[in-house]
């Protein structure tokens, strides 16, 4: 029953404006709530919290329909929020790992002399080679 758009998993969220902040909650995703100072920030934070919660889950909870959520929360605005969990993991949850590499000594010396961050250069080269963001 998960709503899937392309590679996104989509859940209904409720938005409640208390005058100072816009509170956002995903009724079907335990622990998924956030807030923003305006609708743009609230929406962005909603995408982020949904990505964080789902990227740490083995399976995703079944969402209720937009209509069911609207009926349960009649005094709240309801919106569908989607996140591509795999893209989210790549962009936000990637920890770095230590890796030994071998390069020619003269290249090492030149990089050191010019304050080149070899890890950064290797990471960017691998992303280009693997065609990932």
Topology:
Elements: E1 3-5, E2 8-17, E3 22-25, E4 33-36, H1 39-55, H2 66-72, E5 77-83, H3 85-92, H4 105-113, H5 118-130
Antiparallel strand pairs: 1-2, 2-3, 2-5, 3-4
Structural commentary:
The protein has 133 residues and is α+β, with helices and mostly antiparallel strands. It is 41% helix and 21% strand. It is built from 5 helices and 5 strands. The protein has helices spanning 39-55, 66-72, 85-92, 105-113, 118-130, and strands at residues 3-5, 8-17, 22-25, 33-36, 77-83. Strands 1, 2, 3, 4 and 5 form a 5-stranded antiparallel sheet that branches. A hairpin with a 2-residue loop joins strand 1 (3-5) and strand 2 (8-17). The longest helix is centred in the middle third of the chain and has 17 residues, at 39-55. The chain is elongated and about 70 Å long. The two termini are 30 Å apart. The mean pLDDT is 87.
Overall shape: it is elongated
Round the mean pLDDT to the nearest integer and report it: 87
Helical amount among residues, as a percent range? 40-55%
String of helices and strands: EEEEHHEHHH
In short:
With 133 residues, the protein is α+β, with helices and mostly antiparallel strands.
């Amino acid at each position: 029953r998960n709503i899937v758009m392309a590679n996104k998993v989509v859940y209904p969220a409720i938005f409640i404006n208390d005058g100072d902040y816009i509170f956002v909650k995903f009724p079907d995703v335990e622990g998924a709530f956030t807030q923003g100072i305006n609708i743009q920030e609230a929406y962005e934070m909603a995408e982020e919290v949904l990505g964080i919660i789902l990227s740490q889950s083995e399976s995703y909870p079944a969402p209720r329909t937009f209509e069911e959520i609207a009926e349960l929360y009649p005094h709240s605005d309801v919106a569908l929020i989607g996140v591509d969990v795999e893209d989210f993991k790549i962009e936000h949850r990637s920890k770095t790992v230590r890796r030994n590499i071998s390069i020619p000594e003269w290249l090492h010396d030149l990089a050191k002399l010019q304050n080149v961050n070899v890890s950064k250069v290797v990471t960017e080269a691998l992303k280009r080679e693997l065609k990932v963001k």
